[in-house]
Write a structure and sequence with these properties.
The chain is α/β, with parallel strands linked by helices and 236 residues long. The protein has a single domain, classed as Spore Coat Polysaccharide Biosynthesis Protein SpsA, Chain A (Alpha-Beta Complex). Helices cover 29% and strands 25% of the residues. Helix 3 packs across helix 6.
Length: 236
C-alpha cells in the first residue's frame, strides 16, 4: 500500500498569522512537523502544501519537498486534493498532518495508519481521552463522541456529551486525518454544510454527506499550537 503525507500550511491564519514560520526552540514549526513525519517509514513521501512564497522558500531552504497551491482553498483537505491531482502516481492512502502539531509522534501516525487494515475504513483520525477539566470547556479544543465500533458520531467545540445525571468520559480530537485516495477526491467535491458552518469544522461536512470517520484512540499527549498563548506555554 502506497501512503503519502501532506502538510497544509497557510500563512494567513486568523488566530495566529505566520504560524508555520514561528520559531520553536530554534526550529520553525513547519520544519518540526516535517521532520517528525519523515520518521515514519510507511510514508513514501512527505510534502508541504502552501499558498505562501515565504513558506515555500523556507521549506526549500531546509531541504523539504513543497508544492505551491492555489490561495483559494477553504480547507486543508481541498489543498491536499490539488497536490493529489498533480501526482503522476496516485497513492492508496493520504495522510493530512496539521502544520500546527510540531510535537506529533511517529507512533501516533503509525497508529492512525493501522485503521486501514480494515478495508471498509474511509477516513481515520486520532482522539485522546481528556483528563483536564479546563480542556473540556475550551472551544478551541474539539470534542468527539463515537460508537462502540469507533465510528465518529459527532464533533463539536461544545462539551459533548452533556452529562446530565452521570459522569462521562470526554475525548478530544487530534486533527490529523488519513483518507483513501478515492474518498479524498469525493470530499473535495462537496459543498459546505450547515453543521460545518455552525461549528467551523470541515469533518462535519463529510459526515453530513454520509462518509464515516474511524476514530483511533491514542494515549500520547500532543501539544497543538493554535494561538500565540499556546506558544507561550511551550516557551515557558
Amino acid at each position: 500500500m502506497k501512503i503519502i503525507a501532506v502538510i497544509p500550511a497557510r500563512f494567513a491564519s486568523t488566530r495566529f498569522p505566520g504560524k508555520p514560520l514561528v520559531d520553536i526552540q530554534g526550529m520553525s514549526m513547519i520544519q518540526r512537523v516535517y521532520m517528525q513525519a519523515k520518521k515514519v517509514a510507511e510514508f513514501s513521501s512527505v510534502i508541504v502544501a502552501t499558498d505562501d512564497e515565504r513558506i515555500f522558500h523556507h521549506v526549500q531552504a531546509f531541504g523539504g519537498e513543497v508544492v505551491m497551491t492555489s490561495p483559494n482553498h477553504i480547507s486543508g483537505t481541498d489543498r491536499i486534493g490539488e497536490v493529489l491531482n498533480r501526482l503522476s502516481d496516485s497513492p492508496d492512502v493520504v495522510v493530512n498532518i496539521q502544520g500546527d502539531e510540531p510535537f506529533i509522534q511517529p507512533e501516533q501516525l503509525q497508529l492512525l495508519l493501522s485503521a486501514f487494515h480494515d478495508h471498509t475504513t474511509q477516513i481515520a483520525t486520532l482522539v485522546k481521552q481528556i483528563t483536564s477539566p479546563a480542556e473540556i470547556e475550551n472551544p478551541n479544543l474539539v470534542k468527539v463522541v463515537f460508537s462502540n465500533h469507533h465510528k465518529a458520531l459527532y464533533f463539536s467545540r461544545s462539551v459533548i456529551p452533556f452529562a446530565r445525571n452521570v459522569s462521562s468520559h470526554y475525548y478530544k480530537h487530534i486533527g490529523i486525518y488519513a483518507y483513501r485516495e478515492d474518498v479524498l477526491h469525493q470530499l473535495t467535491q462537496l459543498s459546505p454544510t450547515p453543521l460545518e458552518q455552525a461549528e467551523s469544522l470541515e469533518q462535519l461536512r463529510w459526515m453530513e454527506n454520509g462518509f464515516s470517520i474511524t476514530v483511533v484512540p491514542t494515549e500520547i499527549e500532543t501539544i497543538g499550537i493554535d494561538t500565540p498563548e499556546d506558544l507561550n506555554k511551550i516557551s515557558g
